Here is the input.
Amino acid sequence: MRVDHSRAPAAFAGDIEAFLGYMSLERGLSANTISSYRRDLDQAAHFLALGKVADWRAVSAADAAGWVHSLSAAKYTVASLARKLSALRMLARFLVREKLRDDDFTALLTGPKPSRKMPGTLSEGEVARLLAAASGGQPRDLRDRALLELFYSSGLRVSELAGLTLQQIDLQQGFLRVFGKGSKERVVPVGGRACEALTTYLVSGRPHLVRPHTGSQFFLNHRGRGLSRVALWMIVKASAQRAGLTRKVKPHALRHSFATHLLTGGADLRAIQEMLGHASISTTQIYTAVEPQRLLDHHAKFHPRKRG
Here is the structure.
């Protein structure tokens, strides 16, 4: 049975709050990441308290290993285990940094490494069908077409797309500024077709969705408020169904397709990394395995020892 996820016992809670405050203010982690770390550390604290551990200063390496073992026994996914262990490790380092402990009780801990799953991508033909399915002249039709065009043209994350504001987009120059993970700003180009769809939405669609309370959110729902990530997911799902795509299409499929199609077309991996907002090139490199046939074709065409 899994440990209760409610707030940590008082003896542990203060240090968790101090750590999360540091990660938010000094490291610039997003609210979603902070919320995940809070749940993970509250869960760890409950486990430790049940084992009669007084507070974080009394945690031993064996105590921490016991929590990790309990998570494995509870059948958490590899990705969840890795994230929870990461949260605990960062807390332990914070305690040492703040001189609340002399040692890092997680130093000898080992955990599973998440497998690098291949991202789901659409073919260029499937993307064309998906974008064409967002047709019609009603304000919401124009919004959906602009949203999907921008999604595929820019490779933004779902949260970045949902939070987009008017001030972030420069349609004349064909780019947008976005604040990604860690509040890092990056400039992302926007293609010509996407700019056309965005302009049409701004002129003929968005004004009809504006309400007295509407702010600067770019993509609006029928109540004049910014689209949520759930609403964005529903738009992608509905468009995929209208396009007759039989497999399940998740919003991130457009981000992955953006990267894969750029790479297939010969784009530099470093440029793709910058546009996607990946902190490490190793994250971007997963896309090099998405199109193995392209590599085979290039080898067959250009290698001096190609088959006769």
The first strand starts at residue 169 and ends at 170. The chain has two domains: 10-97, 124-297. DSSP finds 13 helices and three strands in the chain. Confidence is low (pLDDT under 50) at residues 1-5.
